[in-house]
Amino acid sequence: MKTSRRAFLKLSALTASVFTVSKSKATNMVLENSKKNIKPIVMSTWRFGIQANAAAWEFLSKNGTALDAVEAGVKIPEGDPNERSVGLGGRPDRDGRVTLDACIMDHLGNIGSVACLENIVHPISVARAVMEKTPHVMIVGGGALDFALSQGFKKENLLTPESEAEWKEWLKKSEYKPKVNIENHDTIGMIALDANGNLSGACTTSGMAFKMHGRVGDSPIIGAGLFVDNEVGAATATGHGEEVIRIAGCHTVVELMRQGLSPQEACKKAVERIIVSAKNRNKPLNELQIGFIAINKKGEHGAYCLQKGFNYAVYSPEINNQLIDAASLM
Ligand code: SD4
Fold first, then answer.
1. Which of 183, 243, 252, 322 could form a disulfide with 179 if both were Cys (CB 3.0 to 4.6 A apart)?
2. How far is ligand 1, taken at its centre, from the CA of residue 244, in Å?
């Protein structure tokens, strides 16, 4: 059958439009599938990460945001007086004052942070309020307390009898030698990927036990104790904050993942940089502990630490909230 030119053109247009429709349908299907393939994951530092992950999973398993998940997660140890390193019941500084550091970061690069905050049980929520309700990213000391009170947070005594007794004991010698994995066992850092493929992180601590009053560690410093880049991954840190700040630790881990390293390789490289820096300054390595944890955009996770003894908790559809010993350099 002979096809006229007009009929041919009509047919071609029809075929093209059918192709276009099916192509865009196919694209949508791929997008749908790739969305469905995103498996949420949350990971956090130390053994109290198990309870914290469970609280975060309540959000992640119901399509909640990574931001809500990490805030809810780290509030668990913050509010627990028996956790002697975070929030209520945290070990005080050498003047007997419990001063808290915290920061939070979302997938859009929104950040909020408080440092040297006293008398508030949940500094992470104050950090989130700094992020969402002020034009600033960091508020410290008395200013942070004033801001918290203006937002309806309640003033409470955070120094529990146990922490006070330990501090009084410490005063007898007043020697500042934080015990590796015990008195520096301080921080909950949590990072999460939600079902929409967005990353967020939170980090909160009472900092090094018996520190000088006013000392701020890495935990409330974006780039040091926590960093999130929604194109690449997220990382958080625990251990000697001074050393982590020196190499902009968590930003370094994320940048190493951007260059193609796996989360564990990136954490390991960052620990190695800390070692080089410490050796250059003749700082004895046996007095230091550093641990990094990281997840990448694909939901792969990894960790690394300087000395044995650091563990972290992971919760995902495949890993049912397990505590894992981090590989260590020493
Ligand atoms: C700090 N990085 O204040 C915190 C302490 C810590 O596990 O993480 N300890 O330096």
1. 183
2. 9
Tell me: the pLDDT tens digits for 38-96?
899 999 999 999 999 999 999 999 999 999 999 999 999 999 999 989 999 999 999 99
Whether the pLDDT of residue 29 is over 90: the answer is no
- Token pair of 42 as six digits: 């949350």
Q: Would the CA dihedral through 115, 118, 122, 126 be positive or negative?
A: negative
List the residue whose alpha carbon is closest to atom 3 of ligand 1: 207
Query: Rounded to whole angstroms, how far apart are CA atoms 278 and 272?
Result: 10
**From the alpha carbon of 242, which atom of ligand 1 is closest?**
10
What does DSSP assign to residue 146?
Answer: H
DSSP tally for the chain: helices H, then strands E:
9, 12
Distance CA 310, CA 141 (A): 30
Q: Which residue has the tokens 């999973």?
A: 57
Name residue 226's amino acid.
L
Contact status, residue 124 vs residue 78, Cβ threshold 8 Å:
yes
CATH of domain 40-162+181-325: 3.60.20.30
What atom of ligand 1 comes closest to residue 208's alpha carbon?
3
Q: Rounded to an integer, what distance in angstroms lies between the CA atom of residue 154 and that of residue 101?
A: 17
For ligand 1, mutation pick of 211, 213, 219 (most atoms within 8 Å of CB): 219
Specify whether the CB–CB gap between 295 and 312 falls below 8 A: no
- Two tokens at 103? 């920061």
Question: Using CA atoms, how far apart are residues 233 and 192, in angstroms rounded to an integer?
Answer: 9
Amino acid present at 253 = V
